[in-house]
Automatic annotation (TrEMBL):
Biased composition annotated in UniProt, kind: Polar residues: 1-10
GO biological process entries: acetyl-CoA biosynthetic process from acetate
Chain segments carrying region Disordered: 1-32
Secretion signal span: none
PANTHER family, per the entry: ACETYL-COENZYME A SYNTHETASE (PTHR24095), ACETYL-COENZYME A SYNTHETASE 1 (PTHR24095:SF14)
Record-given protein name: Acetyl-coenzyme A synthetase
Length: 713
């Protein structure tokens, strides 16, 4: 195993700011028990995961008459892969958890005091396996009333002329009077129908999720940066009759013609009968009479109270299409109980949330990270969540830090691509802002290079915060491998240990055998199901089985490579398709990229394998540079030599790239993930067979790369 990254001991002990909070009460649901890595069960129940159960009879109201939301879930899941399909034995009924939606869609609270009390202490064994000891306490663990919760909105700074109502979050008194969104009665949407959503990052998007959940409609949220073709395909795939959108959106100082994109998509979707349009900028947009309706007018027509639909735990909550880094996106289906349980518990334990916390996940609601960590997870725990519009660099690269300071954010969660971008633009942008409220910093989406991790720790966390590098997927619904702040010491670049109940295994890629013990590397799979596992691909269960269940029978196949180091810590090595094999050495892209980024001039890199007669494969590295780094563009050869030397030094001569290609930008998905397959195709001379590019953020990057590859020596 190439283990140059694996340090011999965890290097980052418990963060000081997290330590201070350890004894304070938490919010959110408790786990009654779970099964550990060795099959041993803790808590009640037998071989299954158990989630909190509360009686659905009593629905407390607060002094304003608002019905409090509660999570009624009991998940007992067991995967039977012998029949090819996972069977999930579940409880008969789960009530949708959206009571808090009334009367304002953004108020959402969670009443934890009904849970039987469980005192949990965590310790971790040598395989990085969570162990939980429980002791019943005589009195309830939570006696404090849940505070009222709000959503924070960070609108793009703009002089745009738009109506007052859409520029400011509603104040509570005003919000309490305004009616909730309900489209069930008027539009004929009932439990089990799909509703497509194509909305920018305003509170209305969050309200839309909760409104759908409340009436039992299955939402299919499409990232509002997608083209009309991508939107059309997704609407057609899930056959929605209702679409919710906005007139326009704002991103990076530009207006995006959201409604016009919708109109283009709907030309080929006659099945869409109603389009509900939220006014974001107030500019004039084309209107189809009879089909298009304004949000602010429609919400005046519906009553203040909309009873929540009773849902079965296995009823779908939403469909979400994957990022498409590896090919055509899949419409992943998540369920009401299991998904929500995963969302609630991971926010509680991975982020160590407390009642007054303010959670800020900077993803877009159109991705799974936004679904779980902007909308459902924080709100289930009753903590404030943040909806951030625009980009981290508009109008300045201090934008994130202005938001943290202004809203006193305690939890900040973003992707390595954003961290690398901000690192590239310099740490002075973090310095003018008070970031002292932050306790936990999260990373998700790609392997985080240790260099970027250190920058995040040093310049954002000021070495006071816990950093949680969280590995999970659209298909897993919630975080799977992660450190626990206050319990797990970290190593930069390692996602560390599994979450409760998760049993990751590392398989030999050829034999498919489980590689036991430490210091092993191979294919990452999951042995048993967990509550928030995706149940199917929408209307294509066979694709679900082919993609996840059949590659290594008996296991859920993640498509990622991973290593378990000598301490049982897990290191995600990137996608299995991206693994490079040079003269029998299996090289991970993540490792070579992390070596390259150590060079003072390098901003970001993407490494690929290209076939080679002599060695099987050889390494090509695509590199972008920091803006302030100066070099002679007529002599890229000298810089390339320096970079090759860097890899030889850090990993070894066998990993040295054969070619270094300096490019202005890397091809990325709209969620910021590097699409290595594009560079692989171009380098193999198959630039005309790039496949599905609908999820590519900036298509012009492809031509720049083609030109550079064609001229590179
Ligand atoms: P598609 O499945 O359509 O190719 P995608 O895999 O990019 O799209 P997502 O579900 O958004 O869609 O991404 C999950 C993937 O992101 C993981 O399989 C993994 O490759 C990567 N990933 C997520 N978090 C981490 C992390 N903390 N460390 C390393 N890789 C991560
Ligand atoms: Mg994937």
């Amino acid at each position: 195993m190439a283990d140059s990254q694996h340090q011999s001991i965890p290097t980052h002990p418990i963060a000081p700011r997290v330590k201070e909070h350890q004894k304070k009460p938490h919010v959110g649901p408790d786990i009654l028990g779970y099964r550990d890595h060795h099959g041993k069960t803790f808590g009640e129940g037998s071989n299954e995961w158990w989630a909190p159960i509360v009686s659905p009879t009593d629905r407390p109201r607060d002094s304003t008459g608002i019905v409090r939301s509660r999570l009624f879930v009991l998940v007992a899941s067991r995967m039977e892969t012998s029949s090819g399909s996972p069977k999930v034995a579940s409880t008969p009924h789960t009530t949708a958890l959206t009571d808090g939606l009334i009367p304002t869609p953004i108020r959402f609270a969670f009443l934890p005091s009904y849970y039987p009390s469980v005192d949990q202490r965590f310790s971790f064994g040598d395989h990085g396996v969570g162990q939980c000891r429980q002791s019943q306490r005589p009195e309830p663990l939570y006696t404090i009333p849940p505070p009222l919760h709000s959503t924070t909105f960070c609108h793009e700074i703009t002089n745009f002329n738009r109506p007052q109502s859409s520029t400011k979050p509603m104040n509570r008194a005003k919000a309490a009077k305004s009616p909730p969104l309900s489209f069930s009665a008027n539009y004929g949407i009932k439990k089990g129908d799909t509703v497509s959503v194509y909305m920018p990052m305003t509170w209305h998007a969050v309200a839309t999720f909760l409104a759908c959940a409340r009436i039992g409609a299955i939402h299919s949220v499409v990232f509002a940066g997608f083209s009309s073709e991508s939107l059309r395909d997704r609407i057609k795939d899930c056959k929605s009759r209702v679409l919710i959108t906005s007139d326009e959106s704002r991103r990076g100082g530009k207006a995006i013609a959201t409604k016009a994109i919708v109109d283009a998509a709907l030309k080929e979707c006659p099945e869409v009968e109603h389009v509900l349009v939220q006014r974001r900028t107030g500019n004039t947009v084309a209107w189809t009479e009879g089909r298009d309706k304004w949000w602010h007018e429609e919400t005046l027509k519906v009553p203040n109270y909309c009873p929540p639909e009773v849902m079965s735990s296995e009823d779908p909550l939403f469909i979400l299409y994957t990022s498409g880094s590896t090919g055509k996106p899949k419409g992943v289906v998540h369920t009401t109980a299991g998904y929500l349980l995963g969302a609630a518990l991971t926010v509680k334990y991975v982020f160590d949330v407390h009642p007054e916390d303010k959670f800020a996940c900077m993803a877009d609601v159109g991705w799974i990270t936004g679904h779980t960590y902007i909308v459902y997870g924080p709100l289930l725990n009753g903590v404030t969540t943040t909806v951030f519009e625009s980009t981290p660099v508009y109008p300045t690269p201090s934008r994130y830090w202005q938001v943290v300071e202004k809203h006193q954010i305690t939890h900040f969660y973003t992707a390595p691509t954003a961290i690398r971008l901000l690192r590239r633009l310099g740490e002075h942008h973090t310095q003018a802002h008070d970031l002292s409220t932050v306790r936990v910093l999260g990373s998700v989406g790609e392997p985080i290079n240790p260099e970027a991790w250190d920058w995040y720790n040093e310049h954002v966390g000021k070495r006071q915060c816990a950093i949680v590098d969280t590995w999970w997927q659209t298909e897993t619904g919630s975080i799977m491998i992660t450190p626990f702040p206050g319990a797990i010491e970290t190593k930069p670049g390692s996602a560390t240990v599994p979450f409760f109940g998760i049993e990751p295994v590392i398989l030999d890629p050829v034999s498919g055998e489980v590689l036991e013990g430490n210091s092993v590397e191979g294919i990452l799979c999951i042995r048993n199901p967990w509550p928030s596992i995706a149940r199917t691909v929408w209307k294509d269960n066979n694709r679900y089985l082919d993609t996840y269940m059949r590659p290594y029978p008996g296991f859920f196949y993640t498509g990622d490579g991973a290593a378990r180091d000598e301490h049982g810590y897990i290191w995600i090595k990137g996608r299995v398709d991206d693994v490079i094999n040079v003269s029998g050495h299996r090289l991970s892209t993540a490792e070579i990229e992390s070596a390259l980024i150590l060079h003072r001039g390098v901003a970001e890199t993407a490494v690929i394998g290209v076939s080679d007669d002599l060695t099987g494969q050889t390494v090509y590295a695509f590199v972008t540079l920091k803006p302030e780094f100066t070099y002679n563009p007529n002599d890229e050869g000298s810089l390339a030599k320096e970079l090759i030397l860097q890899v030889r030094k850090v990993i070894g001569p066998f990993a040295a790239p054969k070619k270094i290609i300096i490019v202005p930008d890397l091809p990325k998905t709209r969620s910021g993930k590097i699409m290595r397959r594009i560079m692989r195709k171009i380098s193999a001379g198959e630039g005309d067979q790039l496949g599905d590019l609908s999820t590519l953020a900036d298509p012009s990057v492809v031509d720049a790369i083609k030109a550079k590859v064609a001229t590179s020596p």
